[in-house]
Structures are given as structure tokens and as C-alpha cells.
Amino acid sequence: MLDMQRAKDWSDLLLKWVTIIAIPIGGWWTYHNFSITDTAEWNPVINVSANALPYDSHSSLLVVHVKPKNIGKVPIVLKGKNSGGDIAITLRTLPANLKQGRIDEDKLPKLNELKSVVSEFSGEYVLEPGVEYDDVWSFIVPKGKTYFVHVELDWPYKGNKPQDGYEVDSSYIVEVK
Fold first, then answer.
1. Distances (CA, A) of 127 to 6, 50, 167
2. Fewer CB atoms < 10 Å away: N or C end of the chain?
3. How confident is the model over 31-56, as a mean pLDDT?
């Protein structure tokens, strides 16, 4: 019986020491994983698609689906281009007389532009973690052309340099007959 009591005392002491050692190691491991995975950092993705619907004899309704998604673990709050990030939509026309080869999007003529989606949502646009939104924007466009739709989500650097911001973007080409 004495050996059983001694074994119990030693195992109790060992268990206490293991617990004392495990707590700081677990804390260090949690912090290490948190800093490696940047869990607190914003992680947005944006996609765009478009389709054309009949409107009248000369025009079509171009329906643009802007799909921002937050794949991170913290909410993303956009407050406008000058104060904390925004989403912009640019609609360009692909002229029929382009030369063969790579198309430079910036040289295409702009048909329409929405510079601030955030301003359309009363100055604040919140992307909750794990949620994909589908914002629909409509444009009346001439028939018989091909359009280049570009969407850009930008957000500022969290430090002191707003010019060091980040962006994600997506583009889509749609033909309107």
C-alpha cells in the first residue's frame, strides 16, 4: 500500500510540473501561430461578372455583379478612398480596330466609372469574415460592342504611409449583341 501512495504522490508532482511547463509553451505556440498566419490582417478577394439584358432598340442593360469576399478572420471596414479603402468599377469599350496582340486596358476608352462604391452605401462598407457579397450595378450601354469591366478594391496600409496601400482587382470581358 505504501508503494501505491508513493506512486500517487510522484505522479501528482509530475503532473503539476508538466502543467506548469505546458502553459508557457502553449502560450508561446499560440502567439507564434498567430503571428505567422497574420490572423488579424485583412484578407479580401474580389470577383466580377457581367451579363447583358435587352433594353431598347439601340441599347442594352449591362448588369455587373461585384463580389467582394472576406476570407480573413476579422471584419474589413471600408470608409472611402480618402479615409480608409474603397471599391471602384470601371467600364471600358473595346474598339473594333485594335491591332493584334496584347490589349493595354489603360489605353481603352472609358465608357463609365463608379469611383466609390462606399459612397453609395452611406460612407461605410463592412465585409464580415467568411462572407461573399454580390452587389449589382447596372449600366445602359450601346449594343454591338464588347466591354471590359474592371473592379478594384483598395485599402490603406495600417501604418503611417497611406501611399503604401494594398489592392485586389478583377476584370471581365462581355460582348453585348
1. 59, 22, 15
2. N
3. 85
- Of 148, 147, 169, 78, nearest in space to 116 by CA: 78
- Cβ neighbours for 125, distance < 8 A, ≥ 6 positions apart: 77, 78, 79, 86, 87, 117, 118
Under DSSP, the state recorded for 85 is: B
Instruction: Give me the pLDDT at residue 163, please.
Output: 52
CA separation for the pair 90, 114 (Å, rounded) = 6
Locate the DSSP E strands across the chain: 44-54, 59-70, 76-78, 86-94, 110-114, 125-127, 135-142, 145-155, 166-176
DSSP 162: G
pLDDT digits over 133-165, tens only?
Answer: 999 999 999 999 999 999 999 887 665 554 556
Beta carbons of 123 and 133 less than 8 angstroms apart: no
Nearest-10 Cα torsion for 39, 116, 90, 52: 100
Give the model's pLDDT for residue 88. Answer: 94
Q: How far apart are CA 116 and CA 123, in angstroms?
A: 9
CA atoms of 89 and 93, how far apart (whole Å): 14
